[in-house]
Amino acid sequence: MFKRFNPEEHVSGHSNVKSSVQRGIKARLVELYPPIESIIEDLLPKKPPLTMGRCSVGAHIQVICKGHVPLFFKDRDNIYPHLKVLQMYPGMIQTVRVDRGAIPFVLDGANIMCPGLTSAGGDLPDGLEEGDIVAVHAEGKKHPLAVGKMLMSSEEIRSSNRGHGIQVLHHLTDGLWYVNHID
């Protein structure tokens, strides 16, 4: 999604978020990611106000920033954490692990294939449903390398073991990863 993202070209404008909208964003984050409830005030304090940048990368993509530093991005339906937020607050969302063979492909922005999750180096927890947001870790690494959306449930991935299992939304080395400040 952000493979060729450049804030100078793809952010068409940003504006301060009203406090009522900010409360709505916080409530939606707690609803989507229950473990975030204990840290939501640290992560999104009242001051400085949140800003939201409108992106022309995809349909209705917005980047939520605190002091112009990206923390989350959203589309019409969901709010997704930036990888730097996941590194600061591990355990915020469900995690899966891909084997070593998948790492270069994921870093290039490819979706994650089912065999990369079910092989010896992969780990796929039970109970994940289609549409769940997950942090993708690599075999032998501490921090996540991507944020993705489940395209199948974990049971379907195990039973079919073919095709795309996770859509990669944001990964290390994409354009959003390198953005430290959005004006």
Characteristic terms for this protein:
183 residues; Sulfate adenylyltransferase; 2 domains; five-stranded antiparallel β-sheet
Tell me the span between the first and last alpha carbons: 20 Å
Please state the average pLDDT score: 85
Low-confidence stretches: none
Strand-pairing-aware structural class = alpha+beta
Total number of helices = 7
Order of helical and strand elements: HEHHEEEEHEHEHEEHE
Count of separate structural domains: 2
Largest sheet: 5 strands, antiparallel
Tell me the fraction of residues in β-strands, as a range. 25-35%
CATH arch. level architecture of the largest domain: Roll
Brief characterization of the structure:
25% of the residues lie in helices and 30% in strands. It is of the alpha+beta class. The longest helix is centred in the first third of the chain and has 14 residues, at 19-32.
How does this structure look, described?
This is PUA domain-containing protein. Keywords: Cytoplasm. There is one protein chain. 25% of the residues lie in helices and 30% in strands. The chain is of the alpha+beta class. It folds into two domains: 76 residues, Sulfate adenylyltransferase, CATH 3.10.400; 84 residues, Roll (Sulfate adenylyltransferase). A hairpin with a 4-residue loop joins strand 4 and strand 5. It is globular, with a radius of gyration of 16 Å.
Topology:
Elements: H1 7-10, E1 11-16, H2 19-32, H3 40-43, E2 50-55, E3 61-66, E4 69-74, E5 79-81, H4 83-88, E6 94-98, H5 103-107, E7 112-113, H6 114-118, E8 133-138, E9 144-150, H7 154-160, E10 164-171
Parallel strand pairs: 6-8
Antiparallel strand pairs: 1-2, 2-3, 3-4, 4-5, 7-10, 8-9, 9-10
